[in-house]
Design a protein that fits this description.
Helix content: 10-25%
Structural class: alpha+beta
Strand content: 25-35%
Oligomer: single chain
Distance between the termini: 44 Å
Radius of gyration: 17 Å
Number of helices: 1
Largest sheet: 2 strands, antiparallel
Order of helices and strands: HEEEEEEEE
Shape: elongated
Number of domains: 1
Length: 95
C-alpha cells in the first residue's frame, strides 16, 4: 500500500513539474477573437491566446509577442486534442 501511495505522489509531482495534465472531460470553449497589437520589434512573432483548465474552470490566457529564437523559426500553436479519455493540451513549440 505504501509503495502505491509513493508511486501516486511521484506521478503527481512529475506531472506538476513537466506541465502534463490529465485529460479534461469537457471541451474547451471556442477561441476568443483577439486584437493583435503592433509588433514591438521586427522579429516578434504573435503567440495566440488559448484556454487553460485550472481548478475545474476554463481560463483564457491572452496572446503575446515572443522573440523568434533563431532566424526562420516558426511558432506551432498549442491546441486541445480530443482523445478517447477526454481533452488533452498539446503545448505550442518552435520549429
Amino acid at each position: 500500500m505504501r509503495k502505491i501511495a509513493l508511486t501516486l505522489v511521484m506521478i503527481i509531482a512529475l506531472s506538476t513539474i513537466t506541465g502534463c495534465v490529465a485529460e479534461i472531460r469537457t471541451p474547451p470553449p471556442p477561441a476568443r477573437v483577439e486584437v493583435i497589437p503592433a509588433a514591438p520589434y521586427p522579429e516578434a512573432v504573435w503567440v495566440e491566446g488559448y484556454w487553460q483548465h485550472r481548478h475545474g474552470n476554463w481560463v483564457w490566457i491572452g496572446g503575446y509577442w515572443e522573440r523568434r529564437p533563431w532566424p526562420g523559426a516558426v511558432w506551432v500553436p498549442g491546441h486541445w486534442r480530443e482523445t478517447p479519455r477526454g481533452w488533452r493540451w498539446i503545448p505550442g513549440h518552435w520549429k
